[in-house]
Amino acid sequence: MDLSFNTEERAFQDEVRGFIANNLTEEMKRATALTPSVFSDPDIGMAWQRTLHAQGWGAPGWPVEHGGPNWTPAQRWIFETESARAGVPNVNVMGVKMVGPVIIGFGSPEQKNFYLPRILSGEDYWCQGYSEPGSGSDLSSLKTRAVRDGDDYIINGTKIWTTHAHHANRMFALVRTSDGPRQQDGISFILIDMKTPGITTRPILTIGGDHEVNQVFFDDVRVPVANRVGEEGKGWTYGKYLLEFERGSGIASAKLREGLKAIAELAESDLTGRAIDSPDIATRISEVDVDIDALEMTELRVLAALQTGQNPGAVSSILKLRNSEIRQAVTRLGVDVIGHDALAIEPMRPLYRLNHEPAIPEQMLTMVPEYLNGRAYTIFGGTSEIQRDIIAKMMLGI
Amino acid sequence: MDLNLTDEQRLLRESAERFVAESYDADHRRRMANDPLGFSPAVWKQFAELGWLALPIAEEFGGLGGSAVEIGILMETFGRGLVSEPYIATVVLGAALVERCGSTAQKQAALPKIADGTLKLALAHSERAARFDLAKVATIANKTAQGWRLSGSKIAVLDGHAADEIIVSAHIHDHRGPSGRIGLFLVSAQTPSLAISDYARLGGGRACNIELSDVFLPEAALLGDGDDALPAIEWAIDRAMAALGAEAVGIMQVLLDTTLEYTKIRKQFGRPLSANQVIRHRLADMAVQVDEARSMALRAALKVDAEPVERARAASGAKAKIGKCARFVGEQSIQLHGGMGVTEELEVGAYFKRLVAFDTLFGGSAHHYGRHARLGHTTVPA
Q1: Local structure of residue A135 (DSSP, 8 states)
Q2: Residue B62 in contact with residue B115, Cβ under 8 Å?
Q3: How far apart are alpha carbons A350 and A167 in whole angstroms?
Q4: Are strands A145-149 and A152-160 parallel, antiparallel or unpaired?
């Protein structure tokens, strides 16, 4: 066992660093640092996606025949770590990390040929149609219905918490195509063009003051049957496959570490009156730092298991649970470190294009909105309570 | 970067697990709890035959040249069996300090005997007034014409009662007065005016307090040439904390498994305890914390040879985090066993007590989060 990189891995690390240094613009960096929501705005995120794609790095997790870079787990680790360290924008994860793997795993050859290149190039921007107002944790109780009409489905219903639906040109959705004996039966996985007549989008503002999520309504929306992925009625299986990717594919610790470092730097600066000099703050920074160490090591252990062909299984729930809890601890610390300045609200967005001098130093602007919006981390992608249910069932057999 | 076990490491784990399963059952543990020695010399001999005592010692001194990862594999299994043999005192602390600080002659004299099971060591460093500050040593070693004269009081010496030789730390005073250096002295347990009072240790094994009143030692009792030994002491205790962390993981795993089984068979209100979501979620949290502790113990083991600040941060981080996880898993194991968990009739309490001892040894969670913080926040791994 060895945590250090070998010669090839160090050479790759240099390559990634060089690539980022040459391509990441100051504007992208500043915009990313000043984004208090989960995702980058598309103009920032997709610019980075195009840059990655030009290098052949547009989809690190994909198989090589679909345009993946054929990296070892260690290379993926290095790429994610260096990206986080440099502060690169978030790309459209709903495309690259969510619907992409499902199309690769279960899509038709036509779907693969059409959609995958457009995800890689950044031409398509995807959103996820899973939750509904009546179906949150109990997702498979979903009621949005797709009724067969010749070569089309006609879709009626509504989806909620749809991140960037107002930016996306495509949505992947779980819809009910029949009523089976179990509520998981009769769900299908379908790809929808957001410009189709009958789709309307209502913005939902989150408590940090950001417009990131939406409610989407479907009124007699006609979608070709050819847009269904895999078999009719098997959508729940594909949807769960995607959720495992959503929870477990991330190498999240590097980003958490950068977030904590930014807060530790503020704590060490005169802007906060050197908050670090309070033993309470210093110890809490260490506690979070150590929690990130543990998560990082678990991520590395999962990578090693994947390398030998093992399935991580319920470990993805441990990663999701701890990542979300630690993120919240980081943001809580951020609020406490900036002290009095946590009282200032900056309602204007985006924060990186303010047309006035903010009331507090720029690097403090995201702390409170990140803390507030960040309450969602333990809710989306399966609440912490659902993750504990999964751990109990899958790992402990109860 | 590689985190998979080698074939040798897998074999080591299998043989250790087999040993604990066959030789270390509840009856054995109960006998040891009432034994004046606190462990079995026959088992110690088996350890020697299995090569475990030689594991971290360099090959040129009769050892196997193993790493902290192998020590961790062994210790995790020891934790499962609640092994009470003086492995930490003799092999992890004692052999390491002799190997790092000793002269060639001292190494040749001690290390092969540790490896073959005929020499047991202990480290007497802690003092009451120092609490967990490793740099604070009030014991004094005065240079005399013939050698050294040591005076002071040591506490919480792990397995000192069983040691043939005790490594005692003391501030060196030469003819010019205090030198500002800490020395390590090899003191035979038979030395006159060495008063050893031992006691049964929380969670198994024994420990002792030692009074040194004008203990006269020959010149050669000093390990090495008298360089300040504090960095070596910190290094050795960081290694011991990584090893103890692995042991704690083994203990926690047993408690989790035992508690899980109990909640499946224990019925109240006409159904198993595990049918309640509040119980399932508690067990899920315990499983998560066992996993986090496992990650931290491995991380500390992989960093024992890193540069001092990185090593110390990894060791203190692991000690603090595993201590916190251990308290949670241990306390919840008792809680979920109900009244029976508080009795000596089940072994849950014995495992819990070893976890409490772990959290206390070399400083608890609060102490080590504090040390971690004092070491700075700017270190970035890899």
Answers
A1: B
A2: yes
A3: 15
A4: antiparallel
Say yes or no for a CB contact (<8 Å) between B373 and A283: yes
Considering only CB atoms, which chain A residues are within 8 Å of B262?
A: none
Q: How far apart are CA B331 and CA B341, in angstroms?
A: 10
Question: Which chain A residue shows the shortest CA-CA distance from B275?
Answer: A398
Binning pLDDT at 50, 70 and 90, where does residue A316 land? confident
Tell me if B39 sits within 8 A of B82, measured CB to CB. no
Q: Which residues of B touch A313 (CB under 8 A)?
A: none
- Whether B317 has its CB under 8 Å from any CB of chain A: the answer is yes
Distance from C-alpha of B184 to C-alpha of B122, rounded to nearest angstrom: 12
Instruction: Please name the member of A286, A293, A307 whose beta carbon is closest to the beta carbon of B369.
Output: A286
Q: Which residues of A touch B291 (CB under 8 A)?
A: 298, 315, 318
| A246 labelled catalytic | yes
Of A282, A298, A387, the CB nearest to B292: A298
Q: Average of pLDDT values for B7-32?
A: 95
ipTM of the complex: 0.94
Amino acid (1-letter code) at residue B234:
E
Backbone angles phi and psi of B172, in degrees to 5? -80, 125
Å from A335 to nearest chain B CA? Answer: 18
Segment holding B199, helix H or strand E: strand B194-200
Alpha-carbon distance B291 to A315, whole Å? 9
- Where helices occur in B216-276 by DSSP H, the ranges are 230-265
* Residue range B254-296, pLDDT digits in tens: 999 999 999 999 999 999 999 999 999 999 999 999 999 999 9
One-letter amino acid for residue B225 of the chain: D
**Contact at CB, A398 and B264, closer than 8 angstroms:** yes
> Which of A276, A294, A396 is the closest to B287 by Cβ?
A396
DSSP labels, A229-296? ESSTTBHHHHHHHHHHHHHHS---HHHHHHHHHHHHHHHTSGGGT-GGGSHHHHHHHHHHHHHHHHHH
Chain B contact for A398, CB < 8 A? yes
